[in-house]
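MOLECULE: protein
FOLLOWS: sequence and fold
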Amino acid sequence: MKEILLELEQAPLAYSKIIFSAPGEKSPSLPGKISLEKRQKKDGTAFYFAEIFRENKAFHQSLEADALLPFVQKVMESARFRQVNLFSLEGEVAFRISKKGKVSRTVNRKAAPVLCRQGHNREKNYLIREGDRIPFMVDLGVFTKDFRIVAQKQDKFRQINRFIEILDHAFRDWEQEEIRVLDFGCGKSYLTFFVYYYFAILKEKRVRIIGYDLKEDVVGHCNELAKKYGYHGLSFVVADVTRDVLTHEAIDFVISLHACDVATDYALNYALERNVPYIFSVPCCQHEINGTIKKGDGELDLFLEHGLIKERMSALLTDAIRAQVLESEGYRVDVLEFVDFAHSPKNIMLRAKKTTNKKKKSLAPLMDMEARYGFRQTLLHLRNKEDA
């Protein structure tokens, strides 16, 4: 511990971020991780904003410069953290403490620095931020009662905000007073409520959103929340999107966040059948091709030798086929990195906008590939049936 304190004593405000992790003792009363981030007040004074994770919740505390060392000494003595990472403009200094108390110090000059932020705005570019008084986010378990992000929902919060950011870019110049949305496989409806809040509250549009999901209890809970907060344009329906008849009303855009496996294909097919202008899809669990593909004495055989490579290739092939099918029906398709892979391995978004009713590409090469390698891809079959 003295090595860490000595490092900080030399320049207590030199580090833009300090992370304590790997506690030596696990207990509900002790923090499992602590992150200190240097910030700046309006008068230019620097301080540290502490985020303390305990029992899957995040607690916050502000530390003036002269309180840093006593704080560090206290947390090291109580939780006995075995890893401490210090980030500065020069790189990273990492300390690792063994069970016997031996300290090792390593320096990584190439580590990306964390810049000092202004005030308490942790993600100032987010359209929806921590601390915003949005009650439904408490009911959905994203925020604590004091409107802080629940520790386990950090990645979910990033994903939803990224989705909203993409929608904001697409509909920034939307001139119509009303917008109609269909959400496939809405689940607990984090995204659905966020989208409604974004358009109805932040953009002051008339919104009609329908969320489909298989689970009756989840759908019932979401309808109760929508009623509780007066979200009259938001409703949820129990339906199997792979077989049930869905709404025939006009829809402006279809969204599907992690609709499992072929449910994504049915969401895309629904949009194609009705010429929905916009599609935003983040696929999930692409098992179909991986479960059926076989060697076909061709270039893909190289990717089928090892299970892990086969699985990843099959997922990419699934989304590549989906993108080409969308393009074949007059959509301009962008394949985006939805969020950083470190936060979610399901990080590909298919963003599509209808641009023409003319067919652009034949599906014949895809059907030939499917026949050669013995796999099946649902969207390809659904659309090939339409073309037959």
Summary: Confidence is low (pLDDT under 50) at residues 112-124, 340-344. The chain has two domains: 2-122, 137-387. The longest strand covers residues 46-54. Residues 137-387 form a domain with the Rossmann fold fold (CATH 3.40.50.150).
